[in-house]
Amino acid sequence: MEHINHSSSAPRTRNDERERALLARVANQNRSAFEELYTGYHRRLTRFLMRLAPRYDIAEEVINDTFWIVWQKAGDFRGGSQVSTWIMGIAYRRALKALRALKPEAEMQPIATVSGTLLVDDPNEANSTESWVMDALTHLPAEQRMAIELAYYMGHSCEEIGAIMQCPVSTVKARMFHARQKLKQLLPRLAGEDDEGLT
Amino acid sequence: MSASHRHTFDTIPWLVNGRVSDDERRALDEHLRECAECSSEFDQQQRLHTAISADESRVDYAPGASLQKLWSRIGREDLIDQPTAKPIASVSFLPGTTRAARSRMMQWLAAAVVVEAVGITLLAATLMNKPAPSNAFVAPPASTAYVTVTTTQIVPASATLLVAFAPNFTVSEVNALLQQRHLEVVNGPNSVGAYTLASSAAAGQRSAGLPRVLADLRAHPGVRFAEAIAQPAVHTAETNP
Q: What is the dihedral of CA B173, B174, B179, B183, to 10 degrees?
């Protein structure tokens, strides 16, 4: 079996060095450095946040709240974590607050299921992949959904997700475990032809 | 050494996204080769990872407009020179931070007012107790002295105008403008770049010609604003652009 082996430590470190340099300039109120940092995160954060609530105004509000804090607190960053972990941690907490403040109807509504299983197209069809996963993710509690997103879209390590969510690594693994189990229940085709082989 | 079943199963997401160390990956791989359950789980999580990480098309907003909103918010909150202004809507997302910032600002403002009040009182007391010499470079009684909000400074008695020039107005142009109108700079620039001007003409001509000089300056393209001073007790120069 061939496993994904794209150890990203080298580019990740280079990226963190670049972001640290930007953040040091932001601490000196350098606007162009701030804009470079903001632009670099805007798309990723927008996508991350739109999964939680499909409203651009809310995503934009959370991103601007996050970067308002980055602008104010850049000088307080002591380098104990990666810059991306620090920024994502702020965004995560702002997002949770924003979600709590939302009226229930504004949150992502899970789509209907039949007997606990989503009625989806063949996941092997390229065009359906996106909705197939998105629909299933709406059924997860927010923190499980974010754990999946942080690992599979943002590419964070287990320890980084713990730092972002401010919880122990064991809690991150537990959230991921429950998310995986729920997704398998919703998406039997995730297992391919061998549905019976699932745990 | 092969990793345990439970540890491997729990760690599969980070094996899939490539965020485990090389040593750990070797141990996990060893277990995966022996365990059908973990091997199947690895394949499933790889499909999920591929689907999620490939989902690029759903959202693609340009950051420009959002960034502009943030800059204007930072600008507004950096200013905070209007404590009575209504809080902006977006502040509601940051109740703790904003309250703290407001509280700090209010403390600062209160301290500034106290310091300024003490300064003005001391200045007034000093002036009241001293007979004013005939020298022109002495402040008139405090009730007519020109002061800014942020400074308490003695302004020459002959000072009549507060003027700010356009940024592209050169020094020689300023000099020519002032000489033609018998004006000279006696103070400034202050924190907003305004100069205090005095008339070099005789006292009688000075007061008679002031409205005309003022109108003349205001009409001049090189003058951003011009105000007569010393009529009201205090001018808030900070509020003038």
A: 170
Chain CA centroid to CA B94, Å: 19
B contacts of A173 (beta carbons < 8 Å): 10-11
Nearest neighbour of B48 by CB, restricted to A1, A5, A152:
A152
ipTM of the complex model: 0.77
Partner-chain contact B44 A191, CB within 8 Å: yes
Q: Do B53 and A130 touch (CB under 8 A)?
A: no
CATH class of A14-112+120-198: mainly alpha
Q: How far is the first Cα of chain B from the last one, in angstroms, to the nearest whole number?
A: 73
Which SS3 state, helix, strand or coil, does residue B89 take?
helix
> Which pLDDT tens digits describe chain B residue by residue (241 residues)?
678 999 999 999 999 999 999 999 999 999 999 999 999 999 999 999 998 887 655 556 788 999 999 999 998 877 664 444 444 443 333 444 444 555 566 677 777 777 777 777 777 777 666 554 444 444 444 444 444 444 444 445 567 788 888 777 777 778 888 888 888 888 777 766 778 888 877 665 666 677 788 888 888 878 878 888 754 444 444 444 4
CB B163 within 8 A of CB B184: no
Q: Could you tell me the pTM of the whole model? A: 0.56
Q: Is B184 exposed, middle or buried (0-12, 13-18, 19+ CB in 10 A)?
A: middle
